[in-house]
Amino acid sequence: MFFNIFVSRPNALDNNQKSTVLTIQNLLETRGMCSRTIGATDFPNVSPMKAVEQLMRQCSGAVILGFPQMIVQKGISKPSTCQEMGIKNKLLPTPWNQIEASMAFMLGLPMLIIRNQGIDGGIFDVGTTGHFIHTFDLNNQDWINESSFLQPFNEWYKEVLIKQVSS
User: Fold this and answer.
1) DSSP annotation string for 13-38
2) Cα(45)–Cα(25) distance, rounded to whole angstroms?
3) DSSP string covering 90-145, please?
4) Residue whose C-alpha is closest to residue 101's, from 77, 124, 73, 135
5) Which residues contact 30 (CB under 8 A, 6 or more apart)?
6) How far is 130 from 9, CA to CA, in rounded Å?
7) What is the pLDDT of residues 15-61, one digit of tens each?
8) How far apart are the first and last CA of the chain?
9) 52: which residues sit within 8 A by CB, 6+ positions away?
């Protein structure tokens, strides 16, 4: 029997990102987990925020995949403040990563947070949730077989099993 895992990711993916998502989905399936994503596997008839909440309540864990969805070639961060700073070629994830990760956190779901190199801010900042932030080149799927990923993945999986049994 499969149990559900919410996967936060953009629905607009390039070919490398699609390969990464498929690799993650396959890894989840080998462990008896079913990947669920609004707009990819689930198409509810309610508002997106309500749909995320309803789906997450059916899940035993969450995977947050921070892929670049926007590049700010030149801009200003925190304008007109004492922390104003110029930015150049800043990679931004989908804002839904922030929303969905926050909801998973509030629901107490075990989270596995994985970001592409160059993605930071909010949920992808070290120390925000108490979870380790795994950083890889998500355009290259070799990282998924490395012990630096598999060991934390196995620890997260144990948390998911505990959550599944207690539900």
Assistant:
1) --HHHHHHHHHHHHHHHHTTEEEE-B
2) 24
3) EEE--HHHHHHHHHHHHTT--EEEEEETTB-SGGGSTTSSSS-EEEE-TT-GGGGG
4) 124
5) none
6) 20
7) 999 999 999 999 999 999 999 999 999 999 999 999 999 999 999 99
8) 15
9) 6, 38, 96, 99, 100, 103
Residue 115 Rama label (left phi>0; alpha psi -120 to 50; beta): beta
Enter the tokens of residue 103.
């909801």
Q: Which long-range contacts (CB under 8 A, 24 or more apart) does 88-96 make?
A: 91/116, 91/118, 91/119, 92/68, 92/119, 92/121, 93/10, 93/66, 93/67, 93/68, 93/69, 93/119, 93/121, 93/124, 94/9, 94/10, 94/67, 94/69, 96/8, 96/10, 96/48, 96/52
**Residues 6 or more apart whose Cβ sits within 8 Å of residue 12:** 69
Angle at which helices 48-56 and 95-106 pack, to 10 degrees?
40
Q: What is the mean pLDDT of the chain?
A: 93
As given in the structure block, the two tokens for residue 120 are 């930071």
Distance (Å, rounded) from C-alpha 126 to C-alpha 93?
A: 16
